[in-house]
Amino acid sequence: MRALVQRVREASVTVERNVIGAIGAGVLVFVGVTDGDSNDDRDWLVHKVVNLRIFDDDAGVMNRSVRDSGGEILAVSQFTLHASTKKGARPSYSAAASPEVAQPVFDAFVGALARELGRQVPTGVFGAHMQIVLTNDGPVTLWIDSATRE
């Protein structure tokens, strides 16, 4: 599993002109699933996202997690995180899991996030064309891949 994590002041996802999910201060996480992603990959990534110390403490040092800071998480499925640009100008998405495989894995990821965070985690609509609006805070943007554990 891959995740692009962004610290945000606010973020929302819209489908067909309807806001489907929105958060205030917290984390926007784009998630890409590939074939072979395991429950261990999911659990490792969930723990990492919830516990990343990317929020300022009282001294202005990034020493608090989204949970510590009382922040929210918005999760959006994004198969393009598994794009390969190795050959030609058109990205290949063959490493991304099929929707039939990816959706239950993504749904389980969101459920695990909610359990670990202790609150609901809004999402977009799996497979839909979405518009994401965010105010990146920092900016703080991190790329995490469960395959390399970094």
Q: Mean pLDDT score, rounded? A: 96
> Total number of helical segments?
2
Tell how many strands the DSSP assignment holds: 7
Instruction: Note the run of SSEs as H and E.
Output: EEEHEEEHE
| Largest β sheet strand count, sense and barrel closure | 5 strands, mixed
Percent in strands? 35-45%
What's the shape?
A: globular
| Strand-pairing-aware structural class | alpha+beta
- How far do the termini sit from each other? 11 Å
- What is Rg? 15 Å
Helix content: 10-25%
Poorly predicted runs: none
What features would you describe in this structure?
This protein is of the alpha+beta class and 150 residues long. The chain is built from two helices and seven strands. The strands form two sheets. Strands 1, 2, 3, 6 and 7 form a five-stranded mixed beta sheet that branches. A two-stranded antiparallel ribbon has the order 4-5. α1 packs across α2. The chain is globular and about 45 Å long. 35% of the residues are buried. The mean pLDDT is 96.
Salient structural properties:
single chain; 150 residues; alpha+beta; 5-stranded mixed β-sheet; two-stranded antiparallel sheet; 2 helices; 21% helix; 35% strand; globular
Brief write-up:
This protein has 150 residues and is α+β, with helices and mostly antiparallel strands.
